[in-house]
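Figure 2 data, in text form.
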Amino acid sequence: MKRFIRISFAATLAVLLLALAASASAQDWARARLDKSPRHREWVTLKHGNRAVQTFVVYPEAKDKRPVVLVIHEIFGMTDWAEEVSDEIAEAGYIAVAPDLLSGMAPNGGRTSDFPEGKAVEAVSRLDPEQITADLDAAADYGLKLPASNGKLFVVGFCWGGGMVNRLVEASPEIAAGVAFYGVAPPLDQVAKIKAKMMMHYAGLDDRVNATRSGYEAALKQAGVAYTMFVYPDVNHAFHNDTGGARYNEAAAKLAWQRTVDFFHQTLGGA
């Protein structure tokens, strides 16, 4: 896979750190549901350069080759909730590949689960953009080379990860479809490079992220990018994270997820 271009995430992080008020705790039910899943899942170590990236992979119960969905976690890192979402992607029929971008960054070289409570957010905010790019590139390459892969790549991200999706699709023509949940817009002068079909989900009360929305939509239209944009009124940033935070909205979350799965199915069908 072509290496993603080097990108700067400073502006994205500044906006998201101000916008976030939800907690990443209270994820016991996500772990319980994941432990009951019948799907095969595993942690693999992806090595590139001096990096060893711990990556969560979940396989669908399918006999034919399937597309790969690169999952980009929230600013909270690769939490139980992020693992459970990856399992839901596999349940829908896709190979989920979810790198823990905090691999090696925790005390004693650990990953997200090894950080003291509340410290993962700070660590994500300090990640080197070039390292993020290389880690995502390695995860995408790994997924596409799996024997079970049909060679098609999708990407989905949430919060901080949603902003990463908006930037990655500018940089890589290999991505067939991208879904960004409440992610800030990418540099608008790069939008014309997007080849992927796009879907974006925004929370109506998410003023800071939404401040970037109208300019992004105008640039998408001008560039002729195929996209669908949904705004869910009266819900907050992180409305899809159902691990106990007050921002979770069940109706909006279920609708957004069904739209996401349908979108991937439609993109696959149009291949």
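Caption note: The first strand starts at residue 41 and ends at 48.
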